[in-house]
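pls read this protein.

:::
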Amino acid sequence: MVSLCHQYGIVTITIAFKQDEDDEIPSGYLFYPSSIAPIAAGYAQFDILQYLITAAHRKQIKVKAWIPQFHDQVAYKRHDSWRMMVYQGGKVIPFATNSSEYFVNPLHPDVQHYERSIIAEILTRYSIDGIVLDWVRFDGYPMDLSDTTRRRYKKMFGYDPLSIDFTTKNSKRIQWNHYRMDAIASYIQSVKTIIRAIKPAVTLDVFVLSPAWKELAQDPQRFAHSVDNISPMCYYDDWKYPVDWIYGKRSDAIVPLVRRKAPNTEIIPVFDTNWEPQVYQKIFANLHPVKTISWFHYGKWTSREIRRIYEYTTSPTVQ
């Protein structure tokens, strides 16, 4: 893989250090020998990530550690009080009750400490070039509504957030969302502080969904000063949007919207590798200015995928 990346001019490899989904193995499992969280099968005996980093650096290719945060089944099952609680069907229940999305509470101090401890372990153990955060968000307005969050919020604002009408835009819901957005931004800043303390040269990136989806409480404007790059995930077809949702003049076009939110931060859009050639042609003809593009591929990278993105990419740097 490293030789192929070198051959086709790829300058950075972003590799998963922590599982993000719950399909093959539970989210929260780690792909390196850790003293903090469970290790995925096959990764305790041979440190493949160290092998990759060494091989990549020999070819002058940078390696970034992709570390999903609050989508974490391991942490979810470790402590009941860490679970993301949602108001649904007239009651407060764990967010995973009716889904396979195991979220922990981004507002809980112990959850934050746990996730940061994994980041610190990776920084201490590996000579990586960057940290990439993902799943740094909520999944809707009526969360987190755990007892811990409700007590803290009531002490700060004088009312229980469970009393908010989450179904309509109103002053209390706006106040609630600002509180959550500030908390997400503060957490990202705390990660930057850890990086500066352990390995100051390591960069910090964040994968983001559309800022138009306010219910996620993920506002690039609030954390842009804490990161080196912001990567909008441009999977237009996942959400049944036309391709110009990536770059167009529509008010919710993801890359222009992130750029308006963070005008002084480098924007690195993330694309799938399986779109048709004409889709990439349309994107590259309209997406300006972009210096660097990141590509996501689920599964094993082969020469076919790497060759395809080389052929589709002209002026931007490829990752």
In short: The longest strand covers residues 62-68. Residues 2-80+103-139+190-227 form a domain with the TIM Barrel fold (CATH 3.20.20.70). The chain is about 35% helix and 15% strand. The radius of gyration is 20 Å.
